[in-house]
């Protein structure tokens, strides 16, 4: 049975999450502050953490940093903070996803399932199949309509980073440093150009992408 750690100081939200998660057979622990969250994470070893940023004793980003010092457990941030800069800060600190309050429970549960899949991808993880194309990460091959898609090395590297983190929002800085190197971080025009090229080659309708999704001001997400 999968275990979720809910970290939030709003009792109504905690109660709603606990009820919904337990109804779906998750084991749930709850923490009202950052110190309790870090202690419970060390004791109970959750499979996913749902984390509010506005905690009474410390900022949620500090909790992320504390967790990332010893675990790669998926962290989904739940926060009323809408500024993209704060979202990017949490993601750069090591969060895997970000859901803005108020949120639809169905959307949150879908993000949670995606986090579990990333944590335990299973034996077929090297091949991702979408309705439009297939990515074979081991063979470094993309097939669409039965034919190989020719990608440049940079296009492949960008697609590889996104598909290996399917469902996870990757910040612009993370993508630039992963694909172009650690000295890059602000050249967002590179991402716009190469994402447009990938969409032309892979998306059925590049103007309305279904798989290569932009989160304005933040980064990109690959959706199967």
TrEMBL record:
Name this polypeptide is given: Response regulator
A Pfam cross-reference name: Trans_reg_C
InterPro entries from the UniProt entry: CheY-like_superfamily, OmpR/PhoB-type_DNA-bd, Sig_transdc_resp-reg_receiver, WalR-like, WH-like_DNA-bd_sf
Residue ranges of the annotated DNA-binding region, renumbered to this chain: 125-224
Modified residues (4-aspartylphosphate): 52
Organism: Actinacidiphila polyblastidii
Domain named OmpR/PhoB-type: residues: 125-224
Keywords, ordered alphabetically: DNA-binding, Phosphoprotein
Response regulatory domain residues: 3-116
Phosphoprotein keyword on record: yes
Matching PROSITE patterns: OMPR_PHOB, RESPONSE_REGULATORY
């Amino acid at each position: 049975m999968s275990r979720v750690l809910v970290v939030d100081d709003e009792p109504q939200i905690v109660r709603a999450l606990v009820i919904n998660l337990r109804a779906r057979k998750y084991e749930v622990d709850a923490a009202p502050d950052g110190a309790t969250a870090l202690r419970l994470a060390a004791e109970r070893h959750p499979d996913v953490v749902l984390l509010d940023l506005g905690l009474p004793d410390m900022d949620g980003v500090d909790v992320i940093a504390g967790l990332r010092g010893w675990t790669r457990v998926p962290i989904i941030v739940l926060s009323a903070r809408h500024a993209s800069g704060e979202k990017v800060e949490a993601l750069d600190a090591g969060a895997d996803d970000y859901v803005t309050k108020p949120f639809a429970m169905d959307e949150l549960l879908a993000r949670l399932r995606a986090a579990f899949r990333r944590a335990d991808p299973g034996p077929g993880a090297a091949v991702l199949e979408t309705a439009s194309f297939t990515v074979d990460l081991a063979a470094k091959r993309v097939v669409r309509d039965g034919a190989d898609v020719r990608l440049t090395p940079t296009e492949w590297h960008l697609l590889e980073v996104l598909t290996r983190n399917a469902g996870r929002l990757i910040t612009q800085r993370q993508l630039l440093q992963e694909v172009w190197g650690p000295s890059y971080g602000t050249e967002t025009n590179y991402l716009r150009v190469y994402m447009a090229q990938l969409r032309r080659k892979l998306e059925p309708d590049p103007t309305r992408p279904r798989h290569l999704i932009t989160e304005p001001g933040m980064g990109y997400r690959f959706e199967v």
